[in-house]
Amino acid sequence: MKPLIEARALTKAYGFTFALRKLDLTVLRGEWVALLGANGSGKSTLLRLLTGLSRPTAGTLTIGGWEIPREAEAMRAQLGVVSHKPLLYETLTARENLRFFARMYHLPKDSAEERITALLSRVGLSRRGNDLVRTYSRGMQQRLSIARALLHNPDILLLDEPHTGLDRDGAALLDTILQEAHADKRTILMATHELERAAALATRIVILSRGTLVYDAPAAGFDGERLAAQYAAVSNELKAASNE
Ligand code: ADP
Ligand code: MG
Question: What SS3 class is residue 66?
Fold first, then answer.
């Protein structure tokens, strides 16, 4: 099967800091990749490069054969993104935000309204849909970000620590939503520090360290505890190697 996402020697430098160093990664359609790694290991950088909003310093990146960022526009509608920044307009209501993005994705107007109502209900914001986003709590903004990411039924979900800020119900709801997306054959890349969730949900575990891929294995057979042990083992090996 041809990879859906292909990074070759992908490199991103900020001044003298290498956020990614010659990263090679291929992802097949339908995979659910949990991206693990310490703060600063390059997870968000990788996700940002995939959205086409940031330009690689060197190496190549393609999604569905399209070269990113040069041809990113062609496949933007296939991406649903939940990032650290909520990408929402604070001076609009939740519903107006979703309407704005529906227009951006050229969703037909009638079906868009229905879809927006359904999504607001799905993420538990029905009653607050007409309130300004400025008045939303962090978790409510996160719920709305999730609705926005799903709005256009994208093939690929790029999620940067998507459980952050959600309450227990919100986090469980997100798990269910993502499980449905996965059952629908959508492809998911999820940066997370939640090893329990990564082990339970993802199909593949990728660990980054200092901008390179240091571990890549199927998630089958992992539970939270075994994954934590694996994560610690990889981290300790790296520490020992860097002290040699
Ligand atoms: P992670 O998401 O795994 O915590 P990031 O991808 O955010 O890591 O960061 C990787 C490295 O790149 C860090 O050293 C970080 O300081 C650096 N970095 C990320 N974004 C920028 C930026 N916009 N300007 C300068 N340095 C950055
Ligand atoms: Mg990050």
Answer: strand
Nearest ligand 1 atom to the CA of 15 is 25
CATH architecture of 5-89+156-243: 3-Layer(aba) Sandwich (3.40)
69 within ligand 1 shell (Cβ under 6 A): no
Regarding beta strands 187-191 and 5-14, do their DSSP bridges make them parallel or antiparallel, or are they unpaired?
A: unpaired
Q: How far apart are CA 134 and CA 141, in angstroms?
A: 9
Q: Where are the domains of the chain?
A: 5-89+156-243
Distance CA 153, CA 148 (A): 10
For ligand 1, is residue 40 a contact (CB within 6 Å)? Answer: yes
Q: Tell me the one-letter amino acid at 73.
A: E
**Contact call for residues 151 and 119 (beta carbons, < 8 A):** yes
Whether 86 lines ligand 1, by a CB cut-off of 6 Å, is: no
Indicate the pTM of the whole model.
0.96
Could you read off the pLDDT tens digit of each residue along the chain, which spans 244 residues? 789 999 999 999 999 999 999 999 999 999 999 999 999 999 999 999 999 989 999 999 999 999 999 999 888 899 999 998 888 999 999 999 999 999 999 999 989 999 999 999 999 999 999 999 999 999 999 999 999 999 999 999 999 999 999 999 999 999 999 999 999 999 999 999 999 999 999 999 999 999 999 999 999 989 999 999 999 999 888 888 888 7
CB distance 55 to ligand 1 below 6 Å: no
Ligand 1 atom at minimum distance from 20 CA: 10
